[in-house]
Design a protein that fits this description.
The chain is an alpha/beta fold. The protein has a single domain (5-98), classed as Oxidized Rhodanese, domain 1 (3-Layer(aba) Sandwich), CATH 3.40.250.10. 32% of the residues lie in helices and 16% in strands. It has a five-stranded parallel beta sheet. The protein is globular and about 35 Å long.
């Protein structure tokens, strides 16, 4: 089983590789409108249960929220349902601080 958490630098490295992983952004619509990681897919947390059939069970993927708390809880839940998911440590806030300062902080 893959790591349950990933640093922003590790995720950036994977995203720049020949085998990038999907990133699912579980924040609310208003949060997504403020800031997002390019190429991430928006699936609000309130919709995640309804979207299980659309999530890849055969691929490792990352889940992101604002500070990494909601996404960690979601990753733990997804893993209980057979998914290979990981949490972006510190969420989009850490992504903005460590990787891409053009992503607004809020």
């Amino acid at each position: 089983m893959q790591d349950i958490q990933m640093t922003p630098r590790k995720l950036q490295s994977i995203m720049n590789s020949s085998q990038p992983i999907p990133i699912f952004d579980i924040r609310e619509n208003w949060e997504r409108e403020l800031a997002y990681i390019p190429n991430s897919v928006h699936i609000p947390l309130s919709n995640i249960q309804d979207m299980l059939e659309e999530l890849p069970k055969d691929r490792y993927f990352a889940v992101v929220c604002h500070h990494g708390i909601r996404s960690l809880k979601t990753v733990l839940w997804l893993r209980q349902h057979g998914f290979e998911a990981c949490n972006l440590i510190g969420g989009i806030n850490s992504w903005s601080e460590e990787i891409d300062p053009s992503v607004p902080k809020y």
